[in-house]
Amino acid sequence: MAESxxxxxxxxxxxxxxxxxxxxxxxxxxPGRWHFLVWAPNAAGVAIVGDFSDWAPRALAPLAATGxxxxxxxxxxxxxxxxxxxGADGTVTNKIDPFGFAFEKKPGTAAILTDxxxxxxxxxxxxxxxxxxxxxxxxxxxxxxxxxxxxRHEDGGYLTYREAxxxxxxxxxxxxxxxxxxxxxxxxxxxxxWGYQLMGYFAPTSRFGTPADFLxxxxxxxxxxxxxxxxxxxxxxxxxxxxxxxxxxxxxxxYQDPHRADNVRxxxxxxxxxxxxxxxxxxxxxxxxxxxxxxxxxRVDAVSNMLYMDYDAGKExxxxxxxxxxxxxxxxxxxxxxxVVAKASPEAWMIAEESSAYPKVTAPLEDGGLGFSxxxxxxxxxxxxxxxxMDPYARRDHxxxxxxxxxxxxxxxxxxxxxxxxxxxxxxxxxxxxxxDRYNQFANLRVMFVWLMTHPGKKLLFMxxxxxQFLEWRDWSELEWRDLADPLNAAMQVFTRTLNKLYAKTPxxxxxxxxxxxxxxxxxxxxxxxxxxxxxxRPEDDVIVVMNLLPEERQHFAVPVPRAGIYTVLLNTESQxxxxxxxxxxxxxxxxxxxxxxxxxxxxVVLPAMGALLIAPKPAP
Length: 621
Hints:
CATH superfamily of the largest domain: Glycosidases
CATH class of the largest domain: Alpha Beta
Shape: elongated
Number of helices: 16
């Protein structure tokens, strides 16, 4: 045992142990006997304290020259424990177990003696399909979710993971989404951090139940046909003295240089991403969630903070050893992370939340890229929201806010995000951003959602936006479900569900998000109308999108189409069914041999005021 432990500890030390959670932390060797392995290279002593010893220390022994401490103690599953570290200066501090699989409920921070969570998975069909169809040419429409505020009990208490199986999964599936994206569910002490200031990198938060309960939630989502993505935060961690900070009495997980360690913007400590042991720790965490917990992807938070020396407040002048802005260790870590994940879980989505124009974020490593599967398109999101928030008649000189995206839409593999960050801290909900009276706000929102769902790129929408919740998101209470008693909110929900399902069953809207062959812009030089064609595998699979961006109906509007024939209207945002005013809808359109804007024919339509149409060739009988 000692020999193999030394071997593994050396691999961890070199940054090559990517399943370190299987050895570090606490593991039950036999009933009532638990083995502990702790990395604390500069500690003068390490002990375990817990229920089993009335919180008296039980010393661990140094493991050769590995910087690790180990020992076997008598204890029972379910008991609480902490790691007691004596620093070189004699200071004694009780710390969390960095590799703990479960923690007590807040405000306590002790780990619970829990071995690697076991589960009887029933998602084999989902896993097999994911491996067979690892191609990115598939529909991805993500419902972003904060589990603590989706729904709550009448007394304000949280749903459990098990209750979420009944409350969340059927709703998201019914609404036509393909994936759930969970804001971080790793253990964290502060509700208001939304899970982005972490302490437990291998532990689902105890707020909602046990690790087994969390695995049951993932399993149920897969059996319902939903992928599960979770936000993951490898750049920084909480400052709390009983967590990872100065773990062995000196900077251990964080940078030695306090200036580099200090994350001013978020009040946290930055991981030293150049430290090999930290690489073992973090990459092991990624693989724990992807492989052991069967997650389908990780949305990597705050990538810009890991890529730039000068990203944080007060660091505007920071430069690397070559005089550049780039954080060389951060880039090397991200390359290594994505390289390991690509080999271990090639079907997994690694998604960068990266807010700058850093090049080749989603390019393969062999082409000089960072190797991410996708990147949030923050520029598209900001420009779109700025445009749609304007009075329609003030938009005339700003159509470039939409059309500029056509210049760079294929530079990366993009996800188009309307996320939680856009509906909080005084920014207003998506519906509340829209101009005009309540009716026109919903009309604008429907057109904006068509722009989201038809523009090249995968999709993401934050919970509550699908029915046009008026209030900003509040993490301390559930969504405003009572809104759905209002006919306009209920109709908006029907519209979003219809649009989601149309997207999923229409390959032209997702088959080719990455090349010019997937889209032809046919009207992009007007101030009030935008039209483009999304191309399928065959000409008869094409879909034509036309958006009227002014509240003025247009009779006999000529929409360019790619070939002569009969067309059908797939969707009209102004249908009364969706909260609009149209009772009788155009269904069948006959093309005219009138070339326009590079296309051989046109169809004559009544273009609804502040509305959008999706048109497709009518299938042969």
